[in-house]
Design brief:
The chain is an all-alpha fold. It is built from 7 helices and no strands.
């Protein structure tokens, strides 16, 4: 006999323990549809990994653990969804504000392209990738002092370029 749980054993386990696994999911979740989805997904996952379940008597334990883990994941997704829904939507900008913001972004991109390569790299990593000066230095393989120098010169050059476009 090949190692792992057989499809027949998994089918028998389904028939014998589906309701108890549904009850387990019901203790963790609040609606029947989610419980059924979790239990079905648990059987699908254990079926896919049945060759790794070397001892068939442990199949039920794997199923129970999978039901618990999937229930936790479902609850996490719900909580995240509720948090996102409870946040007020930001006010939408008018078309004029959007166009003005786009022009400012275009000017900034044009000014960034006019910087020296190292200045641009430092500013992008520092302010757009939100890295610390030490992280920028490590990433670029330059000293911390060089990061500070390139950053300050780059900002000064951007200020001049942006004022020229204003």
């Amino acid at each position: 006999m090949a190692a792992g749980t057989t499809v027949d054993h998994l089918t028998e386990t389904y028939r014998a323990h589906y309701r108890s696994l549904l009850g387990l999911a019901a203790l963790l979740l609040d609606d029947t549809a989610s419980c059924e989805d979790v239990v079905q997904e648990a059987f699908i996952r254990v079926h896919s990994a049945r060759k790794r379940v070397r001892e068939p008597e442990k199949t039920l334990a794997y199923l129970r653990q999978t039901v618990v883990n999937l229930s936790r994941s479902a609850l996490r997704r719900r909580i995240l969804g509720l948090k996102l829904l409870s946040k007020p939507m930001p006010d939408m900008a008018s078309a004029e504000e959007g166009a003005y913001d786009q022009l400012e972004r275009d000017d900034l991109i044009k000014a960034m392209k006019g910087l020296q390569r190292r200045q641009r790299e430092v500013l992008v990593l520092r302010y757009f990738a939100d890295m610390t000066e030490a992280q920028v230095a490590e990433t670029l393989g330059i000293s911390l002092g060089s990061v500070k120098a390139y950053g300050s010169r780059g900002i000064a050059a951007l200020r001049v370029a942006m004022e020229a476009n204003a």
